[in-house]
Amino acid sequence: AQTVTQSQPEMSVQEAETVTLSCTYDTSENNYYLFWYKQPPSRQMILVIRQEAYKQQNATENRFSVNFQKAAKSFSLKISDSQLGDTAMYFCAFTPNTNAGKSTFGDGTTLTVKP
Amino acid sequence: DARVTQTPRHKVTEMGQEVTMRCQPILGHNTVFWYRQTMMQGLELLAYFRNRAPLDDSGMPKDRFSAEMPDATLATLKIQPSEPRDSAVYFCASGQLAGLSYNEQFFGPGTRLTVL
Predict the structure, then answer these.
(1) Which of B104, B106, B107 to mutate to test the interface with A (most CBs of A within 10 A)?
(2) Which comes out higher in pLDDT, residue A84 or A30?
(3) Which of A26, A71, B35, B82 could bridge to B91 as Cys pair (CB 3.0-4.6 Å)?
(4) Structural domains in chain A?
(5) Which residue of B has its CA nearest to A102?
(6) Structure confidence at residue B84 (pLDDT)
């Protein structure tokens, strides 16, 4: 069974600063996908960024980037130039590349961006 | 703009009543998930379907919960009888698994259930 750990229940950052959210996972799978989802106060879950485990290059989406360390089973999210709209709970998720496709989510990190 | 829809968005009911939540997945997606989110337990997977067939419902209390997909455009989650501990936000999500590759899950807006 897979586990996903987000060790930071809460974090805060000043507007325009950079913040990194950590995520580690445990699996015996070799092929899988990793995701970061954002859940703002509206509760809508939104995909932020996706990483395929077979790709060595770290994924980037505008101000969001990841640091994927496969050997260390680490998948951190970096938010650059933080904006007030980034205030949300962030979930790290693991999905094995098997026919089951069942995802495991971490407990989430609540990020507050301060003006 | 394709999206997952869920009804109702809010439901307040009394203990012992039946609750039915509905989900319309994104057209063409072959996988549907039901999650429950609470402060204490976080995001829990209750059940999921592939091509309308149930693949895993091990996260669901079998005595009171049931999940079905009567057709490709509708998934239902039913609680009978409901209890106060079922109070939570219930999310439906859909995705497309083709072969061994997997895309993101698209989440609905959730149903906030309060059982008094």
Answers:
(1) B104
(2) A84
(3) B35
(4) 3-114 (2.60.40.10)
(5) B48
(6) 97
